[in-house]
Write a structure and sequence with these properties.
Elements lengths: L5 H15 L7 H8 L3 H13 L3 E4 L5 E4 L23 H12 L7 E4 L6 H14 L9 E5 L7 H9 L16 H4 L4 E5 L6 H13 L1 E2 L8 E2 L3 E6 L6 H9 L2 E4 L8 H19 L3 E3 L1 H9 L5 H22 L5 E3 L6 H4 L5 H11 L6 E3 L5 E3 L11 H14 L4 H23 L5 H7 L2 H18 L5 H19 L9 H7 L1 H18 L5 H12 L13 E7 L3 H13 L4 E6 L5 H15 L5 E5 L2 H14 L3 E4 L4 H13 L3 H13 L4 H10 L4 E8 L3 H12 L2 H4 L4 E6 L3 H14 E8 L10 E3 H5 L5 H21 L10 H18 L6 H19 L10 H24 L7 H12 L4
Parallel strand pairs: 3-8, 3-9, 4-5, 5-8, 10-11, 14-15, 14-16, 16-17, 18-19, 18-20, 20-21
Antiparallel strand pairs: 1-2, 6-7, 10-12, 12-13
Helix pairs in contact: 1-3, 2-3, 4-5, 10-11, 10-12, 15-16, 16-19, 18-19, 18-21, 18-28, 19-22, 21-22, 23-26, 24-25, 26-27, 33-34, 33-35, 34-35, 34-36, 35-37, 36-37
This protein binds adenosine-5'-triphosphate (ATP).
Adenosine-5'-triphosphate (ATP) binds next to helix 5, helix 10 and helix 12.
Length: about 900
């Protein structure tokens, strides 16, 4: 036979004691002596049993203990004060209830009001228990409930049940019956749905309440009963039906419905009920966060009672499943609940912020039979790639249960979104690229990096670093899965394509690259998953207010402004500011202006100051000393550094981290990250001239300003960047950086740095006013080269019967003719337009297609007829070689470009 534990011994002793000594309790010392167990031990056990609701403590000296005969699962855990909601929604009700019980000499009658399932019965039980604990009732005081609605259609039987009856007092009464009023003598009688009591019953009830007397049916003699009556009803307090009761019963306690309680309280109830189920099953129950979310949010009209039974049903489902599948773990998912519960998840999006404060992240919780809830340690790692298989299992299971396809999709989309959130959260902060490279192939990282930058430009959005890490991990596991021939379905696909069309198109593009690189085929479902990563940038993850700002301070009229403009456009955030320091500006004024800009715009966590020359660097230090605003200076300023700083400051809030990583990027410029970025960001490189000088930092700027005044420079849309050559190594590094993002057409200055492929123009050529001839030529030739590149790039589109060289020749010659013979100024942008037009025109003509009419032909012919005819003649001479003829419409199109004439 199983050996009795000390706990069993105490319980058995109390059972026997209560049988022999009705209505009284016993103290700890006596129990300890009788069962021969150490007093401290007995005291500990009694407290435990009290917590579990198995014994009742009767206040006094010494405290007496008795078995809680009325122990139900519901009032198990301690009395009123341990009830969920005791300090919140039920606080007032409990105060009223306690007051009514303690009211001398034997408590007041009370009426419990509240919708079905709010906990009225439980409340009455707790009142009974409270009365015993406070010596108002004896420990063995009865607690009897009677639901008046059950007998509402049989008033005589109802009366007989309540007040007792003599044999033959009504049809069918074949024996004497003791009424509940009598049975509940010296205890509590709960009359539920009391408004259903027939009028004669009400009369007798009020008589009993007033006089403590009643008359059983068919009897003449009144009987006495000392019963505390608690009435309960779901009727609203102000209905006429109830007014009779509310007038007679001194205390009305309204228990609030579930929807009026806080979600924290509801969460407490949910946990409590799952613990109760766990203890019933005798096994641990592991609960998914989505289960908790749906339980928190679904429309639970039946209040706490319904919440409890819905949880019971869900637990019963998984319990059965675990038996049939012989699984050790009992694991509860939102899909295990009835569909009205699952619907709760649909409300998650709108209540996300609040719910996330209660159900945090995606950890599953484990509820054990001893009532402890903790994080489930065994949760599978999402990075193991099991997620998709689990999703599929879940879908199959739902299908088998007959869940509608539409419901499955809704539920699955929540699972999927949670997965992404977790994947992203996990990758936040704790993974760096080096670590990532242990898990992810370099090719994948490069592809993802390029994709994110590209998507960022296209969507005009910045992505957090975690998008990069998350996507790298995701792609890796997708490739593995696809290689293993595993099928996946994205139940969110339809929604993704509808809601995030742009992201989906980008993902399609990216998918072709992956397919090519890894020789696999990505199904559309997979592309849907990729798109979802891009939607993350849409979340309000960027809180500009708490991030450092970037200030670009550079010499020159608008060098800093133009850089900042590019950075703002690309990064899409307005956290970057420009300070253009004109050469003639007095340094003290410049300092004050820069300081003012910093003070005005900083957001409390520091400023990254990007400067081009030494004196500005000093400004950073001074501003920090004077204002206390943290200023970190970055010296190697270029558009790309500005972009990188702006991008990082939107994501990261720690200025030191940004500063370090930007500096690292600068020194590793040729490492993939920035290189990739430049390729993507700068599709068409802008032209620049670098000015250099060995004699002090201002001279290069002076040369720049001088060049900017030259007409042929103003006409050329060329940017001029002064560089310091005091430190040659740094100078070459800067040139290299610039080369990545700009087309350096020439270096002008007092020192020939001898760089392969970049012509040098001594400044003396310009000073002596050799008309800047060489520089002008260089610029012109550069444009010609650029037009040649355009043709090269369009090679695939060209008509194969005509070779690319012919196209180049006719395009470039036409532009030269326009400039030299007809005297038009052709900027590079206009030239590019002409080249593109001519490519299409020649192809069209050679294929025998007609040119569409040019709307401004008449205007051009009347105002520029001479030029038009000359151009037509010249072009026909060239085109004739290939049997092509150019008409007035084609010529008008070209001139329209040059003259910028639009109707
Ligand atoms: N605060 C609470 N803590 C724990 N369980 C509760 C709480 N409130 C109610 N319950 C549980 O919810 C269920 C429904 O409560 P109860 O039966 O007392 O409601 P009721 O208002 O009497 O419902 P009805 O009007 O339908 O009779 C019970 O199992 C009860 O134990």
């Amino acid at each position: 036979m199983k050996k009795l534990t000390n706990r069993d011994k105490v319980l058995r002793y109390l059972e026997k004691f209560n049988d022999r000594n009705v209505g009284i309790g016993i103290d700890t010392n006596s129990i300890a002596t009788d069962i021969e167990i150490d007093r401290a031990n007995v005291s500990k056990l009694l407290n435990q049993l009290y917590e579990e609701g198995l014994v009742i403590k009767i206040k006094g000296k010494p405290v007496l203990y008795t078995l809680n005969k009325n122990n139900t699962q519901e009032n198990k855990r301690g009395g009123f004060d341990n009830t969920i909601g005791a300090d919140k929604s039920l606080k007032k009700c409990i105060q009223q209830a306690k007051a009514s019980i303690l009211y001398p000499p034997r408590g007041l009658y009370s009426l419990l009001l509240g919708e079905t399932g709010v906990g009225k019965t439980l409340f009455a039980e707790l009142m009974h228990r409270f009365a015993i604990e406070n010596g108002i009732l004896q420990p063995n005081a009865p607690f009897i409930t009677f639901n008046c609605a059950d007998y509402a259609s049989l008033p005589q039987l109802l009366m007989a049940q309540l007040f007792g009856s003599k044999k033959g007092s009504y049809t069918g009464s074949d024996k004497d019956r003791v009424g509940l009023v009598e049975k509940a003598n010296n205890g509590v009688l709960l009359l539920d749905e009391v408004h259903r009591l027939p009028p004669e019953g009400q009369e007798m009830l009020f008589y009993l309440m007033d006089k403590g007397e009643f008359t059983p049916l068919g009897e003449d003699q009144t009987k006495k009963s000392n019963v505390l009556i608690i009435c309960a009803t779901t009727e609203e307090a102000d209905t006429s039906l109830l007014s009779t009761f509310t007038r007679r019963i001194p205390i009305s306690i309204t228990i609030p419905p579930l929807r009026e309680r806080t979600l924290e309280e509801r969460y407490g109830l949910i946990c409590e009920f799952i613990k109760v189920e766990s203890s019933r099953i005798g096994r641990e129950i592991v609960v998914s966060p989505n289960s908790l979310r749906s339980l928190l949010l679904y429309n639970c009209t039946g209040n706490v009672g319904q919440l409890k039974s819905d949880i019971q049903l869900g637990c019963a489902n998984v319990f059965l499943k675990s038996i049939s599948k012989k699984q050790k773990e009992i694991s509860l998912h939102s899909t295990d609940f009835a569909s009205h519960v699952k619907q709760g998840l649909i409300l998650y999006k709108n209540n996300k912020e609040y719910i996330d404060t209660i159900v945090d992240g995606n950890e599953r919780l484990s509820f054990s039979s001893d009532g402890i809830e903790k994080k489930y340690e065994g949760a599978q790692s999402l990075f193991e790639g099991l997620f998709y298989e689990n999703l599929e299992d879940r879908v199959q299971e739902l299908k088998q249960r007959g869940v509608e396809e539409e419901d499955i999709n809704v539920l699955m989309s929540f699972e999927i979104e949670s997965y992404f959130k977790e994947l992203i959260d996990k990758s936040q902060g704790n993974i760096n690229k080096e670590e990532l490279s242990k898990l992810v192939e370099k090719e994948t990282m490069d592809l993802v990096e390029e994709f994110i930058y590209f998507a960022g430009t296209k969507l005009n959005r910045v992505f957090p670093n975690k998008t990069f890490y998350g996507l790298c991990l995701h792609i890796t596991s997708s490739i593995e899965r696809l290689r293993a021939g595993k099928k996946i379905i994205n139940h969110n696909l339809k929604k993704v394509i509808e809601d995030y069309k742009d992201e989906y198109i980008l993902a399609l593009n990216f998918a072709t690259k992956i397919e090519k690189q890894f020789a696999i085929k990505l199904p559309v479902d997979e592309i849907g998953f990729i798109s979802m990563f891009l939607t993350l940038g849409k979340d309000p993850i960027i809180d500009e207010a708490k991030h450092p700002i970037v200030v670009v301070a550079m010499h020159g009229r608008n060098t800093a402004s133009s850089m900042v403009e590019v950075a703002q456009k690309l990064v899409g955030g307005y956290n970057i500011y420009a300070y253009d320091m004109h050469l003639d500006k007095n340094p003290q004024t410049a300092y004050e202006e820069l300081k003012e800009m910093v003070v005005k715009n900083h957001r409390g966590v520091g400023v990254l100051l990007l400067v081009d020359m030494g004196s500005l660097k000093m400004f950073g230090k001074l501003i920090e000393e004077q204002t206390g605003i943290k200023v970190k200076v970055i010296e190697m300023v270029s558009t790309i550094t500005a972009i990188e700083c702006a991008r990082k400051s939107l994501i990261e809030s720690d200025i030191n981290k940004i500063w370090e990583s930007v500096n690292e990027s600068i020194s590793n410029f040729f490492n993939s990250s920035l290189k990739k970025m430049t390729e993507v960001y700068v599709a068409q490189k802008e032209k620049i001239i670098i000015t250099v000088c060995t004699t002090g930092e201002g001279s290069a700027v002076a040369i720049k300003e001088m060049l900017e005044k030259k007409k042929y420079i103003q006409n050329e849309e060329v940017q001029i960047i002064p560089l310091n050559v005091n430190n040659l190594k740094e100078f070459y590094a800067s040139v290299n950086k610039l080369k990545e993002i700009k087309r350096i057409v020439a270096i002008v200055g007092t020192f020939n740095p001898d760089i392969y492929g970049i012509p040098y123009v001594p400044v003396s050529d310009i000073f002596e006013d050799k008309d800047g001839k060489s520089l002008k030529n260089i610029l012109e030739n550069d444009s010609i080269k650029a037009y040649g590149w355009i043709v090269e790039n369009y090679k695939k589109e060209l008509d194969s019967t005509i070779d690319a060289e012919f196209y180049k020749e006719i395009c470039i010659s036409t532009i030269e003719f326009l400039k030299k013979n007809l005297g038009f100024h052709i900027s590079e942008g206009v030239g590019t337009g002409i080249v593109l037009h001519m490519i299409c025109a020649i192809k069209r003509i050679s294929l025998g297609e007609k040119c569409p009419p040019c709307e401004v032909k008449d205007k051009i012919m009347s105002e520029y007829g001479e030029e038009a005819n000359k151009l037509k003649e010249y072009m026909n001479e060239l085109a004739g070689k290939k049997g092509i003829s150019i008409d007035d419409d084609e010529v008008s199109f070209i001139l329209r470009n040059v003259l910028q004439i639009y109707e």
